[in-house]
Specification:
Order of helices and strands: HHHH
Radius of gyration: 20 Å
Largest sheet: none
Number of helices: 4
Number of strands: 0
Strand content: under 5%
Shape: elongated
Structural class: mainly alpha
Oligomer: single chain
Amino acid sequence: MANFTLSKPFGLSDCSAVISSPSRLNALTYSRLTASSLSFIGSVSIIVYILKKHKLSSSEIHPLFFLGIADFLLSTAWVVGNALFLHGRDEPCKTIALVVWCLEILTHLLTVMYALVTWMKMYELNMATTSSREKRATFNNRRFFIQKVAYVLCWLIPIGLGVPRLS
């Protein structure tokens, strides 16, 4: 179970033993705010490039696009959470911490999904030289079905884990 403590910056579960002064805590929060801002810029640039160049129709781009969206959402939550922490607004912090936790799980799952899609593509390329056309067609149908189900699960699992913790 995740610990959603309001008095700590996002991404640090038990920093009270490590951080002894408020100035260090603020410095760490500013550092996290800077890193999440850079992550925000990077993920937005990936999303904009893919959409602008109409690359989303390529199945190899889907994992990168979904990972970019998840990272965009995560970095946005980090920026908002750290900004609220710096301004001393603790009311929404517990909810934002839960959203950050769910989005971190999502990015981990989508990274695993990226590896799965890459493995399936490599397997398909290997089949192109060693298998019949019928076997390749069967594999492609299964691959698309598995990928669709896996993407849905990647997005639903963090929601399913986070919703019960809202109360």
